[in-house]
Design brief:
The protein is mainly alpha-helical and about 210 residues long. Helices cover about 70% and strands about 0% of the residues.
Length: about 210
């Protein structure tokens, strides 16, 4: 674009970076972020968040962390969008420890959790190895509801995957929530993420009344 005589500004760079981020093209998004720096423009939180989101979509959590560190070193404070995107890659790999540590950064930066981040947190618990972190998922949903969050269908799906359909319904009733997710859809998603028998044996082995 610049070779064609088009003068780019910060807004232009952000638009380009965001376009590559949306399709998960990490290399191109990072290349334009570097070009932005090289041409004397300061990247803002939108620039960094877009690249982090691209990394997350590609499952490149190490790269996402690197961009996040660079952003903090440049004195740019994250937003809820930044932290939600950063948690996305870790959630897919079941790294609930890192997602929890990202959640702790909300207080540092004066941010509040939203339903998108809650969904990532529950997904991290559901994808944990060698077995889902059901107790943590249950406690996380309880705390979120106490904070005023209203679980949507995506949150419900992640929660059911983490604790199992029967226990999910019990906890949602306890919290005065409606589990509107069809059982058939939940069952299909659970089966696609982990063998059903393995999950069933795990849930049956838990002493759920102790929670």
């Amino acid at each position: 674009m610049e070779k064609a005589g088009c003068q780019l500004n910060s807004s232009s760079y952000n638009t380009i970076i965001n376009a590559y981020a949306k399709v998960g093209d990490v290399k191109s998004a990072e290349r334009w972020l570097k070009t932005m720096h090289d041409n004397g423009y300061e990247a803002n939180v939108r620039s960094y968040s877009a690249v982090i989101d691209a990394c997350a979509k590609a499952g490149q959590y190490a790269e996402a962390e690197e961009v996040y560190k660079r952003m903090l070193n440049d004195g740019v404070a994250p937003t809820i969008v930044t932290l939600t995107s950063l948690s996305k890659a870790h959630a897919r790999s079941g790294n609930w420890q890192r997602v929890e540590s990202i959640m702790n950064e909300f207080h540092i930066h004066g941010l509040k959790m939203n339903e998108y981040f809650l969904c990532n947190l529950l997904c991290a618990y559901a994808n944990a190895k060698p077995q889902p972190e059901a107790e943590r998922a249950a406690n996380a949903l309880r705390k979120a509801v106490q904070l005023g969050l209203k679980p949507d269908e995506h949150v419900n799906t992640a929660f059911v995957r983490a604790v199992g359909h029967e226990w999910a319904q019990s906890i949602m009733q306890e919290l005065g929530l409606s589990c509107s997710l069809p059982a058939q859809r939940v069952k299909a998603q659970v089966q696609s993420s982990r063998p059903q028998q393995q999950r069933t044996n795990y849930y049956q082995s838990r002493n759920l009344r102790s929670l």
